[in-house]
Amino acid sequence: MAGSVETAAPAPAAATPTPQREFTTDDYFQTQRPPANLAEKKEAMRKWVDKWAGVEGKNVVLVTSGGTTVPLEANTVRFLDNFSAGTRGATSAEYFLDRGYAVLFLHRTHSLRPFSRHYSHSLNPFLDLLTITGDSIGVADPQAAKLLPILRAYNKAQAEGTILSVEFQTINDYLWLLRAATGVMAPLERRAMFYLAAAVSDFFLPEDRVAEHKIQSTKGSLSLEMDQVPKVLRPLVQEWTPEGYIVSFKLETDEDLLVPKARAALSRYGHQLVIGNELHKRKHEVVFVERKMREKSIGDDRIRGAETPPLADSDAEGAPNFRRDLKKKKEVFSETWLHLNQLAPNRPEAEIEEFIIDELLKRHQEWIDRGAK
Ligand code: PAZ
């Protein structure tokens, strides 16, 4: 694993303003301290991954889930956060488990978790399901019928140890843990999938600019200047796990940006897939964007027919400009939209993650098969 040093120079005790700087990933890990229990968490992940690495044909997925915080104070009273509840990650983890994957679930503390997510305090309060008869507690129908398959799947995952949950809170925890998790999964080579659904802050405060104590309002207004979080997808793809099947998510609020930004990410980082989602439609509509690498001299027919067509493949470049754009960029993208109302028209309780995971499993298997040739 590149840059596997896990200790960094201790930060000065008091916050001392330094000029804003651009952090490369290496700079980041050399200057920002790791979370206190990183070594223990890494060891737990290594043992768990080793166990599944020894099981032939067992695929393993790292699911990242929930939002990251950016603390404004070292003794943290205030922090910046984002909207993510971890629904995508927790729901997806259940479907991965159901389809036979082992799941390393890297999630934000207190965000939704697989199985228990069905009984979150706001949506479906746990105590409301329970009945008392004499001194016994039970669950009455219709809740019992719904709970039974969930409890069975939960007990199975617990008994088999197919899920390992690891928590992060801050952007710093997340980056260190992501690197550690990716490093321990690298020996799985193509059997490893990375499903990066966490909503990760793009900005952070380097620790030498974080106030030690609660910021006092007596000082007047608060100005914050944050630095950009380094784009760790690049080393993740190129150095940390060059054989892994890597799926990143792209969230936008302007739908028109989804596909162009997904394509730009694929061109820049060279990973396998971007799943685009618009904030308000994310529970019922996503787009899979994939880049098809082509040799300079390959003809259109071979390009068009080269890959197994997914659900509704289309040439992302648009037919009229296909040849011209291909010559210019030598890059072709495919887009596959998943619309829940089309995929499960008569199942009001269906979740789009079921279809996302089934589509991904096909593509991951193709990736594994291509590596075996
Ligand atoms: O956690 P959630 O289900 O509320 O939201 C999921 C999501 C929108 C955070 C995820 O699908 C996603 O797009 N993650 C990547 C966000 C980004 O950094 O662009």
From TrEMBL:
Keywords carried by this UniProt record: Ligase
GO molecular function: ligase activity
Biased composition, class Low complexity, residue ranges: 7-19
Residues covered by region (Disordered): 1-29
Enzyme Commission no: 6.3.2.51
Main enzyme class: ligase
One Pfam assignment: DFP
Protein name: Phosphopantothenate--cysteine ligase cab2
Organism for this UniProt entry: Vanrija albida
